[in-house]
Amino acid sequence: MMNYHLWLGFVAASIVMGLVPGPGVLSIIGYAVSSGTRTALASVAGMAVGNICAMTLSLAGVGALLASSAAAFTLLKWAGALYLIGLGVLAIRRSHMDATDKDVILKPISARLAFRSNILIGVFHPKTIVFFVAFTPQFIDVHYAYWPQAILLIFTFTVVVGITDALYALTAARARTLLVSPRAKIWMGRAGGGALVAAGAATLMTKN
């Protein structure tokens, strides 16, 4: 189906990619800190779906189009970044309301919203799509059929990065549960919102 040594090399590279924090990891940490474990793990699942879509689009040739079109790249970058920043600002405002109005009971960001949001972040983060175009072909063996290898690489990357993302989510959520006082929860909400804003800013700083 594919070269075993190439596949092991891809696994190692995927582990490195998963451990290096990027906008996706920042968004997951933001959800974990602001809204807890359930929401964070839902965001991990959403990111996994987004990664599957991004890799599939890349290997189907869409990444090459983005790499050659500055306008399309910029449009997707701004859309994803503004969405993340908007969610972060919302989380910060909610924590401020909690601090100023003791009668207001604020709900955390729902798991469903986090799941949907991170699908969009995974799919519409143009740097990821373009990166896959340059990165993945190095692990394709021309002596084997293309799409079976591509599907295996998509599955491998999704599983490996899903595991590293889940570790980030659980660690951040654990840190949140250790701070149980109302004031600490307010600041954790603000920190989570700040992480989402930072993820949006990191997306804006990517270059084609």
UniProtKB/TrEMBL annotation:
Keyword Membrane recorded: yes
Topological category with respect to the lipid bilayer: Multi-pass membrane protein
An example Gene Ontology CC term for this record: plasma membrane
Assigned keywords, A-Z: Cell membrane, Membrane, Transmembrane, Transmembrane helix
Cellular location(s): Cell membrane
InterPro entries: LeuE-type (IPR001123)
Transmembrane segments: 6-33, 40-66, 72-92, 113-134, 146-167, 187-205
MF terms (GO), sorted A to Z: amino acid transmembrane transporter activity
Keyword Membrane assigned: yes
Main location as per UniProt: membrane
Protein name, as recorded: Threonine/homoserine/homoserine lactone efflux protein
